[in-house]
Write a structure and sequence with these properties.
The complex is a heterodimer.
Chain A (H helix, E strand, L loop, with lengths): L14 H173 L6 H32 L4 E5 H15 L5 E5 L4 E5 H18 L6 E8 L6 E6 L31 H11 L4 E5 L5 E5 L6
Parallel strand pairs in A: 2-4
Antiparallel strand pairs in A: 1-3, 4-5, 5-7, 6-7
Chain B lengths: L6 E4 L3 H13 L6 E4 L2 H9 L15 E4 L8 H10 L8 E5 L4 H9 L4 E4 L4 H18 L12
Helix pairs in contact in B: 1-5, 2-3
Chain lengths: 379, 152
């Protein structure tokens, strides 16, 4: 403090100076007091500030408390979360176990697949072996087939030789029988009575029948043996020329041929001619008792498949016997009514079958017959 | 103009031989008929060999009637030898046989036959065929000139 600095004024001459010092001191004190007051004010402000600060502290404390509460709350939620996380971890562990199991299963599956693969490989090998065996067998089959073909060719050659021999050798004795019967009739006519001559005539006609049988059998055999050559055939022209030939051969008959124009097929021309000739021959034969024979050749569209037909207005036949119609040596008419060998339709059937076609007939007793045939599909 | 040259029948069936002779007689074909009963005999006759050694081989038949199925040497072989030899290659040869197998007919012409006649079973037709053959080959047809005898 400044009180110590105050020097009070003396009576001496110097008393004026003294007073001055005194004022100065007082002023200093006042100055100091002002400063003190200022400091106090500052302190007061500081206290106020402190108080203010304390309020704020309190507020902060309150906030902190809230915060702690919050933290505690948060902790609870954390705990919950932790619990959740724990569950999650447990779940994950569980999941992992299941994953592991799945992995294991997968591994097993892969192993199985590998095993299967191995077994497949075995299968494949077995299959390969089987295929090789099949190929071997096929080779054997082929060889056997080759042998068969050789055998078949040999059999066919034998058949040809047989037919050739029949053609040459079987006819010669017939010529002898017929020739010497004829010689008897010519050279001994005066010494043979009518009955003897009739017997000789019979001998001759039987011989000639045998000759026709041989010829037709040979034709049947030839139709089987001959190599087929399919080509476009004009059936109209073929039927026409056959019809002309038949008209010439039967000058006493009234034969009307109705042949559809534009009939064509893919066939062996020679074989088809044999078949058509036989069918038209039959038509002429079985219309023998008609004053006016009407013979049609055409193409039918109402038979399920396009079929050629030969139709006549002749004797026909009972459909009950249609089954044996195409068998060799089968006849549906008495020889005295309509002579024949029973080989003609067998030959027709063989020709048609060789073409891969079908042949059938429709007829009615005394109301004519229709023979249908197809020529098969080309491969 | 009927000539007197030989007719050579190459045929092994005795019945056919006699029936052919008979048909010639009845057809009034007067040419001498020589019969060879197998292929070998026919070739011996034509080329003057074996039992026919010394025969004038330039004296060729007016016509040969040749059967195909023959013992020893077949009809086709006989025909081949006839066509192969310059002395006989113009010789008229008609195949007279039982078969009409297409292969026989084709081969016959391929080997140089002048005709192919199938013997019919009907003896009337047979006699007619022989008479027509005689008429055509011995009367109507101009025969090839006689081959010159080989210089010996």
């Amino acid at each position: 403090m400044a009180a110590a600095d105050i020097t009070w004024p003396s009576s001496d001459s110097s008393s004026h100076a003294g007073a001055l010092s005194f004022v100065r001191a007082l002023l200093n004190i006042l100055e100091d007091t002002a400063s003190e007051k200022e400091q106090l004010h500052g302190a007061q402000s500081a206290v106020l500030n402190i108080l203010e600060d304390t309020a704020s502290e309190k507020e902060q404390l309150h906030g902190a408390q809230s915060a702690v509460l919050n933290i505690l709350e948060d902790t609870a939620s954390e705990k919950e979360r932790l619990h959740g996380a724990q569950s999650a971890v447990l779940n994950i562990l569980e999941d992992t176990a299941s994953e592991k199991k799945q992995l294991h299963e997968m591994q097993s599956a892969v192993l199985n697949v590998l095993e299967d693969f191995d077994s497949e490989k075995h299968h494949l090998e077995d299959m390969k072996k089987a295929v090789v065996n099949i190929l071997d067998d096929l080779g054997v089959e082929k060889r056997q087939l080759g042998e068969r073909t050789v055998q078949l060719e040999a059999a066919n050659k034998e058949l040809e030789a047989f037919a050739y021999s029949v053609s040459h050798d079987l006819r010669a004795p017939l010529r002898g029988i017929d020739g010497w019967s004829m010689a008897l009739l010519e050279d001994y006519a005066g010494r043979l009575d009518v009955r003897a001559q009739q017997y000789l005539d019979r001998l001759r006609s039987e011989t000639q029948r045998m000759g026709r049988l041989i010829d037709e059998l040979l034709q049947l055999s030839r139709v089987t043996r001959v190599e087929m050559q399919r080509q476009p055939v004009d059936l109209t022209a073929l039927a026409r020329s056959t019809a002309d030939r038949l008209s010439e051969a039967h000058p006493g008959r009234q034969l009307e041929f109705l042949i559809e124009p534009g009939l064509t097929g893919i066939a062996d021309a020679h074989l088809l001619e044999v078949a058509l000739t036989n069918l038209l021959d039959n038509a002429v034969k079985f219309t023998g008792r008609r004053s006016h024979a009407r013979i049609e050749v055409g193409q039918a569209k109402d038979q399920g498949e396009p079929a050629f037909f030969v139709r006549d207005n002749g004797a026909g036949f009972d459909m009950a016997y249609a089954g044996i119609l195409f068998g060799a040596f089968q006849r549906l008419h008495k020889a005295t009514e309509f002579p024949g060998t029973g080989i003609g339709l067998a030959t027709v059937q063989r020709v048609i079958h060789r073409h891969g076609g079908r042949v059938w007939a429709e007829a009615q007793v005394d109301a004519g017959a229709t023979f249908y045939f197809t020529l098969g599909a080309l491969k | 103009m009927v000539n007197d040259r030989v007719l050579l029948l190459i045929e092994d069936n005795p019945s056919d031989i006699d029936l052919t002779k008979r048909a010639f007689d009845r057809g009034r074909i007067g040419n001498p008929l020589v019969v060879a009963e197998d292929g070998k005999e026919a070739l011996d006759y034509l080329f003057g060999e074996g039992p026919h050694a010394g025969r004038d081989v330039s004296d060729l038949p007016a016509l040969i009637l040749l059967d195909l199925k023959l013992p020893k040497v077949s009809g086709f072989e006989v025909l081949r030898r006839i066509r192969e030899d310059p002395r006989t290659r113009r010789q008229p040869v008609v195949i007279l046989t039982s078969s009409k197998e297409q292969e026989d007919v084709a081969k016959g012409y391929d080997f140089g036959a002048n005709g192919y006649v199938r013997k019919p079973i009907d003896s009337k037709q047979f006699a007619e065929a022989i008479a027509q053959l005689g008429l055509y080959w011995l009367v109507l047809n101009e025969l090839p000139p006689k081959a010159k005898a080989r210089a010996t």
